[in-house]
Amino acid sequence: xxxxxxxxxxxxxxxxxxxxxxxxxxxxxxxxxxxxxxxxxxxxxxxxxxxxxxxxxxxxxxxxxxxxxxxxxxxxxxxxxxxxxxxxxxxxxxxxxxxxxxxxxxxxxxxxxxxxxxxxxxxxxxxxxxxxxxxxxxxxxxxxxxxxxxxxxxxxxxxxxxxxxxxxxxxxxxxxxxxxxxxxxxxxxxxxxxxxxxxxxxxxxxxxxxxxxxxxxxxxxxxxxxxxxxxxxxxxxxxxxxxxxxxxxxxxxxxxx
Length: 257
Prior knowledge:
Layout: H1 4-7, E1 8-9, E2 12-13, E3 24-29, H2 44-58, E4 65-67, E5 76-78, E6 100-103, E7 109-114, E8 118-124, E9 129-135, H3 137-141, H4 144-156, E10 164-167, E11 177-178, H5 180-183, E12 191-194, E13 197-200, H6 202-212, E14 220-222, H7 236-239, E15 246-252
Parallel strand pairs: 4-7, 5-6, 10-14
Antiparallel strand pairs: 1-2, 2-3, 3-15, 6-9, 7-15, 8-9, 8-10, 11-13, 12-13
Helix pairs in contact: 4-6
């Protein structure tokens, strides 16, 4: 098992192996960047200032960000240049009722926000197609990982075997206790029953969906990092309503092909 320092560079968790694509910008922020979501506590102006700082460090101006509304459902949006700026500095303009974003256009940074839920990253290196998804327990039960793959395949005429995917840092089975009503919505293979209740392996549930959708197992990375166990990432389960949010971002920069 790799340590946290193996995954994090300059305050960003990176999918192992993906940094070799010089045209790709991606990562999950750590708590070093502070809260980056507009829908939780804090002055919006402070959140926007942090987003600008992150945008500058990534080389993607805030006006080129596109953010999802994130309602714990399974709607996927194909993002194009006409969407630039949606949700970047105003929550009301985020893509409504959307939990997944995909694009093949340069100069757009897709962004979703997390504090224990699973960030899903998608990459098709040969075609320069990217995506990001937000998978809480409801979205996972609704098969959002599979729906992301379906959308990529249908919209961009892909074979699932062309897709690379990553399940980023999120709450682990070690910490994610759920009630029986939630547990019943998942396969026994991702539920562990202990003396004090049920524990859900949300990461593994998403990995199984990705494999069942046709992505090759060696093209799926599943992070071992639990966001609830340490202070490097925000955690709603650990901190409650005081928890900030990390940003999961992915985009295609303007490097020539």
